[in-house]
Design goal:
With 287 residues, the chain is of the alpha+beta class. The chain has seven helices and ten strands. α1 crosses α3 and α4 packs across α5. The termini are far apart. Formation of pseudouridine at positions 38, 39 and 40 in the anticodon stem and loop of transfer RNAs. GO terms for molecular function: hydrolase activity; tRNA pseudouridine(38-40) synthase activity. Homodimer.
Length: 287
């Protein structure tokens, strides 16, 4: 049986999501806790958004396959008398109880049964991130420093929004990321909106059907370079169209980034969506 885990974490003290020998990772801590809870040696999670070292999450999703017997024990006695919503919260509470012993910076919100066609990675319709930063005109706040990048120059919010708008739609984002071997960097950027937060920071809401490695932090870095006057709006567009990595802007620090939401289709469309996502995207421009 397949279960879906909805979770959040403070990424500060993790070497990213993916399990790595000798390093503390979100996957490693979760699978260790699941092994204790389910009394299995190697539980294996599949994740919706593979975050890098230092990146946070409020809306991470993963899935896990378990036996009916394991699931029944996870729900506790009288599981058959509880609603699925109650069981989802109860399973999460039990898992959090194990995590508190060594990984209290992870919080599991829900553990619920889903169709076998559900795939946390390939079944996603879109992913939404937020990037927070302060420029040198903002008042520094130590209480939010763990998830807000600090910059040494002043930014123009209106100029940054104009630059962000130039990236919307279906584009080749090779300038801003490194595609996997045999894949393309073609992505559909659905939203890139900047706002001033209540605590005086700037926040970017970035949503796409999918992202390639470092794409969010690189696009934010390029837009920040425009907002600070380091590069012009015209040069920014030229860099986008060049489809080549550039030293004209920097990739932003990991700690300002948070995975906020992963959206999935209705149950009847899960298998079709996973098959569509696995298909290789064609390059743009007939290349």
């Amino acid at each position: 049986m397949r279960v879906r885990l909805d979770l959040a974490y403070d990424g500060t003290d993790f070497a990213g999501w993916a399990a790595q020998p000798g390093l503390r990772t979100v996957q490693g801590e979760l699978e260790r806790a699941l092994g204790v809870l389910l009394r299995v040696s190697e539980p294996r999670l599949t994740v919706g958004g593979r975050t890098d070292a230092g990146v946070h999450a409020r809306g991470q999703v993963a899935h896990l396959d378990v036996t009916a017997e394991q699931l029944e024990k996870w729900g506790g006695r009288a599981a058959s008398e509880r609603s699925e919503a109650e069981l989802a919260r109860l399973r999460a509470r039990k898992l959090n109880g194990v995590l508190k012993r060594g990984a209290s910076d992870i919080a599991v919100h829900s553990v619920r049964v889903v169709p076998g066609a559900f795939d946390a990675r390939f079944g996603a319709l879109r992913r939404r991130y937020e990037y927070r930063l302060r420029d040198d005109a903002a008042r520094r706040d130590p209480l939010t420093a763990r998830f807000t990048a600090e910059l040494a120059h002043t930014l123009d919010l209106e100029v940054m929004q104009r630059a962000a708008d130039e990236l919307l739609g279906l584009n080749d984002f090779t300038t801003f990321c490194k595609a996997r071997e045999g894949a393309t960097a073609v992505r559909d950027l659905l939203s890139f909106e900047w706002r001033r937060t209540d605590d005086g920071a700037y926040a970017a809401r970035i949503e796409a059907d999918a992202f390639c490695h470092s794409m969010v932090r690189a696009t934010v870095g390029a837009v920040v370079a425009v907002g600070s006057g380091r590069i012009s709006e015209e040069e920014f567009v030229a860099l986008r169209d060049a489809r080549a990595r550039s030293s004209r802007f920097t990739v932003m620090p990991a700690h300002g980034l948070s995975l906020e939401e992963i959206a999935y289709p209705a149950d009847a469309d899960l298998a079709a969506r996973a098959e569509q996502t696995r298909a290789r995207r064609d390059p743009l421009g007939g290349e």
